[in-house]
Amino acid sequence: MTLPDCKPLVDLSGKRGLVVGIANDHSIASGCAEAFARCGARLGASYLNEKARPFVEPVAERLGIEWLAPCDVREEGQLEALFAEARERWGGLDFVLHSIAFAPRDDLHGRVVDCSADGFGAAMDISCHSFLRMARLAEPLMADGGCLLCVTFYGSERVVEHYNLMGPVKAALESATRYVAAELGPKGIRAHAISPGPIATRAASGIDRFDELMERAREQVPERELVDVEDVGALAAFLVCPAARRITGTIIPVDAGQHLMA
Ligand code: NAD
């Protein structure tokens, strides 16, 4: 049998993707954007605000991201404007990556039992409800179907020391992902939550004793090596590509096997 003249399995040429969550080169969103770009995707991305912009622009330039727009999901109208920009430039979207999270420091560093209603609400709004808003905004732009990705962590399922408030928030994000997949599935829109092992990023540095968490992970994982943003990007590129069209609603670990260990 001879193979037909075919393209690589993970081929994103011509696909239009929106990446939300690049803070700098170390961001998980940057690793994903790099993988999307290497597979041929056209990309737009956001930066949080003017202070963040100088750190995001070089990443965008390096990866050939076509356009950038500001997006703080807590600023009225900015998320809507981001999707409107995608519609104006491209007329639609094929995939979206939500790679953002935030919790106020005092609430994050205390016991979950003690967290304030305001802190809990802010963490849920930025880290979880924004994914639902993105799904709603993406829906009319994905006339030919598409894929929505978000990024979660194992602290949603098990109590991970110092992960605290983000545990219940990520549990909600994972559940939201399943409902998005079920509700938008009839339109050919898929949804997944990628669950990476610990990676040293800016957001991660806000978690108390994160270096210890990384060390523990390194000792636990079968391969004795931690994952990096490239590993997450490889999975993300596969999930959004047409070859993954029958896979939806999953919470997929990319954690070098840490989830296996007691
Ligand atoms: P990062 O600091 O590089 O990215 C976090 C992003 O969230 C930043 O770009 C920041 O601007 C954005 N953000 C925060 N508040 C926002 C707001 N109000 N509006 C819009 N954007 C906002 O860190 P990261 O580790 O790459 O985090 C990306 C995602 O990965 C998060 O959901 C995080 O919980 C998740 N995650 C990280 C790890 C890890 O170990 N680093 C592991 C599992 C999951």
The helix content is 25-40%
Compressed to H and E, one letter per element, the order equals EHEHEHEHHEHEHHE
CATH superfamily: NAD(P)-binding Rossmann-like Domain
Shape: globular
Kindly state the number of beta strands: 7
Find the structural class using helix and strand composition: alpha/beta
CATH topology (level 3) name: Rossmann fold
| Number of helices in the DSSP assignment | 8
> Main sheet: which strands, in order across?
3-2-1-4-5-6-7
What Rg is obtained from the alpha carbons, in whole angstroms? 18 Å
Return the average pLDDT rounded to an integer: 96
Distance between the termini: 46 Å
Q: Structurally, how many domains make up the residues?
A: 1
Q: Which small-molecule ligands are present, each listed once?
A: nicotinamide-adenine-dinucleotide
Largest sheet composition: 7 strands, parallel
What are its keywords?
single chain; 262 residues; alpha/beta; Rossmann fold; seven-stranded parallel sheet; 7 strands; 40% helix; 15% strand; binds nicotinamide-adenine-dinucleotide
